[in-house]
Amino acid sequence: MVKRNFFVWLICLVITISGCPAMALYMEGLLEAGLGLFKTATLSDEEMHALSAASIEKNDRENQIVDKNSVYTARLAKMTKNLKIDKGLRINIRICHTPGAVNAFALPDGSIRLYSGTFDMMTDNEVLYILGHETGHIALGH
User: Fold this and answer.
1) Using CA atoms, how far apart are residues 63 and 121, in angstroms rounded to an integer?
2) What confidence tens digit (pLDDT) does each residue in 63-97 have?
3) Entry pTM
4) C-alpha–C-alpha distance, residues 103 and 117, integer Å
5) Which pLDDT value is given to residue 23?
6) Which residues are designated catalytic?
7) Would you say 108 and 48 are in contact if contact means Cβ atoms under 8 Å apart?
8) Sheet of strand 92-96, all strands in order from the earlier edge strand to the far edge
9) How far apart are CA 108 and CA 22, in angstroms?
């Protein structure tokens, strides 16, 4: 009885999907999303680093990066002067001038971007925690 109900349900589903253009488009969208996920999961390290470099270049072009003499850069330098980076990681940290925005992100190529609002609203230890979190993504190849 259970098998029969399953097959009846399956046949109804196939008829519904094949006869409904909206469902067909929905299924096509799901298929495209699945293929996109597969492509992302199968990128080589070289491809991932090239995409990261292009992405960070675009980010830095579209957002104001604070200069080397800013209070944010000075604070970051003071906070990190005694930190050691393990595993020979190459880290490239920049601060985006984004008043009021608290955020940070890392890319597999070693780029970390911190938002200036993070510095405005958090203590040094909190910012260091975020920096450690982002460095962890890089170390693990995320």
Assistant:
1) 20
2) 999 999 999 999 999 999 988 877 678 889 999 99
3) 0.69
4) 8
5) 47
6) 134
7) yes
8) 92-96, 111-115, 104-106
9) 38
Reported as a single tens digit per residue, the pLDDT across 1-54 is 555 555 555 555 555 555 555 444 455 565 565 555 555 567 788 888 888 889
- Is the separation of the CB atoms in 91 and 112 below 8 Å? yes
CB 124 within 8 A of CB 79: yes
Residues 6+ apart with CB under 8 A from 59: 96, 113
b/e code 61-89 from CB counts within 10 Å (16+ = b): eeeebbeeeeebbeebeebbeeeeeeeee
Q: How many residues does the chain have?
A: 142
Counts for the chain of helices (H) and strands (E), in that order:
6, 3
Q: Tens digit of pLDDT for each residue in 101-110?
A: 999 999 988 9
What domains lie within the chain, and their CATH numbers?
A: 1-42 (no CATH), 44-142 (3.30.2010)
Residue 113 has pLDDT above 90, yes or no: yes
Residue 70 corresponds to which tokens in the numbers above?
């800013």
